[in-house]
Amino acid sequence: MIKKEQVKHIAKLARLQLSERELQKYQKELSKILDYIQKLKEVKVTEVEPMTHPFLQKNVWREDEMIRVQPINLKLLELAPETKDRYFKVKKII
Amino acid sequence: MFLDDFTIKKIQEGLTRKKFSALELTKAYLEKIKKEDKKIRAFLTISEDLAYSQAKKIDEMIFTGRKLPPLAGVPCAIKDNILVEGIRCTAGSKILENYIAPYDATVVKKLKEAGAIILGKTNLDEFAMGSSTENSAFFPTKNPLDLKRVPGGSSGGSAAAVAANLSVFALGSDTGGSVRQPAAFCGVVGLKPTYGAVSRYGLIAFASSLDQVGPIAKTVEDCEIVFEVIKGKDDLDSTSINPEFESQNFNLQIQNLTLGIPKEYFIEGMDKEVEKIVKEAIRKYEKMGAKIEEISLPHTQYALACYYIIAPSEASANLARYDGIKYGFSEAKNPKSKAKNLLQVYLQTRAKGFGSEVQRRIMLGTYALSAGYYEAYYLRAMKVRRLIKEDFEKAWEKVDFIVTPTAPTPAFKLGEKITDPLAMYLSDIFTVPASLAGLPAISLPCGRIDNLPVGLQIIGKPFQEKKIIALAKLYESGKN
Fold first, then answer.
1. Which of B364, B379, B459, B461 is best to mutate for the A interface (most A CBs within 10 A)?
2. B236-271: per-residue pLDDT in tens?
3. Neighbouring residues of B103: CB distance < 8 A, sequence distance ≥ 6
4. Which of A93, B3, B37, B402 could share a disulfide with B459, CB 3.0–4.6 Å?
5. CA separation (Å) from B86 to B102, B176, B185, B341?
């Protein structure tokens, strides 16, 4: 069983504000899932190279040439909750 | 107009012989959706204006006698995690409830160029995380064959729309089985292409080393036609490729083929009827002349655990973008919000915007990637993933295809697994291995238990979609 403090720490890393009740719920559920995942410890993996991608491709190059695209930056900016001039607006950081 | 028999070819024949116009056909489908989708709830958004404007263009092409593209006038539905320009795209989440797609996904652009008519966007588990479509933030979709049961997931809306003849075909996305399992539960055909065969540009990212867009249709041939349209390298997705070793012209001689049946896919706890029906389907191939060989994929039992580290880890990184700043739901816009600084905007936006399955997976992924646990979980899972892939590579030395059940049970009841996340995850047990290995796989209907369909999964070598399609067609034509 993972500790509640751990769940709290993960929630903070994941930028999720959870209530006491939610913390308890996730503690229980994550513990059960992690117990199942312990299965992976049975596998001998010492000599195995980790697989990051189904078909490894290296250096996907393209010619460094200018292409004309329809600018959609203003359209994207319209989707933002708050903007000022042509910038995203955010609350103060500290 | 009787829509239930329509396939892509029948529609094109009807259009060219002027039995009906594209506009009439579109209207008939939209009316059917209005009437019948109230009980199934496959659609989240109906794109009526877009559909009619596309239909008018096709009718003009027919009127002026121009050559019709391969999907001209064919009504389709798009899973709501794939962007269609100007149409709302929610990913089944409150966090994107009012998000209007600013551009077309490459697959959508290709469908439009091929003349397909987009009827609307279909329901899904939030961010494609789930196996029943019950995790949609809006409402669950029902299985058209039994309204008390789930359509599967996460592409449950797409599979249900096709099964209920509310659409001729649909696009879904498959990360661990999300095209194949709902296709199996709804009695339709679903193809997950090889990783890299289809562009992911404009598909809302879940787990980027696994996600693929795939077609769902009533027949194998329709899946094939759609796959041919959407496949191919896209400069906007550097993981997409035009395979050099793609099978082009071949003649599938069933007598020369060996089908591998992995013993790990016929396990204790699976539905006995499912096992029986799948074994009968395999016997049909044997009667046609195929050689059947029992094989072993020894790491199968670890695939689900491996998947539930890798997919949530990638998801936790991919979903970091929903921060309430750039788009989507934001606490910064809530006048009652107590968020005083940027961090509180993040914390509260994400707590309110994401549903519990998404939060659960973000937490699981964050945990697996966090300092002190990375090696024990994520790194180990990546190593096990290689072993799973190598199991398949060894099998290809002996067999041409691998044939399995798509899911261990038929469609389960709404609410049956929703309170037990792990039980829900287990319904992906037969689809996850091919996803981890990046292999193409198709699910096709192979029988029913009472009224509930059972799916047969055919897994092929990388980029041999055409061959698994050809093998699936043999079964389909042998059935009639």
1. B364
2. 999 999 887 656 667 788 999 999 999 999 987 789
3. A72, B83, B85, B202
4. B402
5. 6, 29, 32, 32
Q: What is the CATH classification number for the domain harbouring A33?
A: 1.10.20.60
Chain A nearest-CA residue for B327: A80
Asked if residue A81 belongs to a domain, the reply is no
Query: Any idea how long chain B is?
Result: 480
Interchain proximity A79–B99, CB inside 8 Å = yes
Contact A39 B305 (CB under 8 A): yes
Nearest partner of A91 among B339, B304, B461, B400, judged by Cα: B339
Q: For residue A10, give its domain range.
A: 1-46
Assess if residue A1 is contained within a domain.
yes
Whether B287 maps to a domain, the answer reads no
ipTM comes to 0.94
Name chain B contacts of A1, Cβ cutoff 8 Å.
Answer: none
Structural domain total, chain B = 1
Residue B37 pLDDT: 98
| Residue B140 identity | P
The active-site residue, picked from B32, B47, B79, B231, is B79
- The whole-chain average pLDDT of chain B stands at 96
- The token pair that represents B271 in the structure block: 């539905």
Domain assignment present for A56: no
Domain total of chain A? 1
* Partners of B1 in beta bridges: none
Instruction: Kindly determine whether residue A17 and residue B350, on different chains, have CB atoms separated by under 8 Å.
Output: yes
Residue B154 a catalytic site member: yes
Residues A17, B438: C-beta atoms closer than 8 Å? no
Evaluate whether residue B118 is within a structural domain: yes
Nearest chain B Cα to A36, which residue? B305
pLDDT tens readout for residues B366-421: 999 999 999 999 999 999 999 999 999 999 999 999 999 999 999 999 999 998 88
Nearest 5°: phi and psi at B453?
A: -70, 150
From chain A, pick out residues whose CB is under 8 angstroms from the CB of B384: 40, 43, 45, 48
- What the block records as the tokens of B342 is 């940027």
**Which residues constitute the domain of residue B24?**
3-230
In a domain, B284, yes or no: no
Is residue B104 in some structural domain?
yes
CATH (domain of B148): 3.90.1300.10
